[in-house]
Amino acid sequence: MWIWHPCILDLATLYSYNIPTTTTVHKALRAHHSPCYLELFVPGRESLTTTSVQNLDQQLTFDFRMFESVKSAIGGSGVTLEDGGVILISETASTSANGLVTHFLSYGVTNGHPVCFVTLQHTWGHYCNIGNKLGLNFRQQIDQGNIKVVEGLKLMAEVLDGSKSDIGHHPFDFILNTTENPLKNLYKLIKKSIEPWKENGQYFLIIIENITSLLNLGIQAGDINIFSQYCKALVGGSNNTKSGSLIIVTTHDERDEGACLVTKTIAHSAIIYMSLQGLSTGISRDVHGDLKITSFNRHSPFQCLPSIHHFQFKMEDKNMKLFAPGTSANVL
Question: For residue 299, what pLDDT is reported?
């Protein structure tokens, strides 16, 4: 984006006015003396459009790239997401995977890949609020059919408050009924959601957060592992269909045997394992935790061992910064 005199605004200034970077708006021919207005050339429109900065993100289509450092770290691992496979994200009691989940959610939206989002720990509104801060309207994506949400907390409430008289085929029927395969109906709902995309040969994503929350509902670790294997089969490709990606979030706690078993089992089949840990030295204002990315490059026949990269991270209001251990601005 080029912005000319008399009022010169750089990208940092644009971000301060909550304007995401874009490929739709190619040129800003002239900026008024007032910092609240920009005169923009918009491709496809015959005349210049003068718009307020506050309303700019509502009038134009933006190609937003979230968390460039995370994108670069994954790209540096040699793994291409469009090749499909399982991506595991583990958090702890002192760290949160919300930033990474939102990264993959926005990755699907901005690249035209449909997403089936299964929320088991947070509400859908929680992620919509994060998206609003980043200039992404996730609710609009639902209306357009780009995102399908299986909201676990809402489905759970339907069973507990008695609003559903017949719960025999309900995804959370296991709360009140003892069944041999407690997660079978939840799997069927996910399968039904992604079938149109798979039949059309589209690359898609299934995001499940946080799968270890099912342990708190009485589901055994073995049943969760079986469920994850069935979901992995959903993203598997064939001669006629593309592979998809399955992103699973877990909570890894060495004191919780069930959560450890689930995390380690899924990690065994993951092409990328992103492990978030709190700092061993305690809480810091400038460094919020450690991120270890373990990846397997399936295109390299000589790579029998995983590639491991260590980072430290800091969560900001609209960004997740990654940097080499010991290189934060405060330390240097």
Answer: 64
Element spanning 199, H or E: helix 184-199
Q: Can you tell me the distance from the alpha carbon of 172 to that of 182, in angstroms, rounded to the nearest whole number?
A: 8
Q: Nearest CA to 18 among 73, 79, 62?
A: 62
Q: What was the pLDDT predicted at 152?
A: 92
How many CB atoms sit inside 10 A of residue 275's CB? Answer: 20
- Identify the H or E element spanning 52: strand 49-52
Predicted confidence (pLDDT) per residue in 37-49, tens digit: 333 333 333 333 4
CB 277 within 8 A of CB 292: yes
Instruction: Please tell me what DSSP assigns to residue 213.
Output: G
End-to-end CA distance of the chain: 32
pTM: 0.76
| For residue 176, pLDDT beyond 60 | yes
CB 45, CB 60: distance < 8 Å? no
Q: Which residues contact 176 (CB under 8 A, 6 or more apart)?
A: 159, 167
- Reported for 186-189, long-range contacts at CB under 8 A and 24+ positions apart, including other chains, are 186/118, 186/150, 186/227, 187/227, 187/230, 187/231, 189/150
Is the distance from CB of 182 to CB of 201 less than 8 angstroms?
Answer: no
CB–CB of 199/193 below 8 Å? no
d(CA 176, CA 162): 11
DSSP assignment of 254-293, as one string? TT-HHHHHHHHHHHHT-SEEEEEE--TT---SS--EEEEE
Paired tokens of 93: 């009691």
For 133, phi and psi rounded to 5 degrees?
A: -65, -30
Q: For 16-39, write each residue's pLDDT tens digit.
A: 334 443 333 333 323 333 333 333
In b/e form, how buried is each residue of 178-192, taking b as 16+ CB within 10 angstroms?
A: eeeebbbbbbebbbe
Region of residue 67 (left: phi > 0; alpha: psi -120 to 50; beta: else) = left
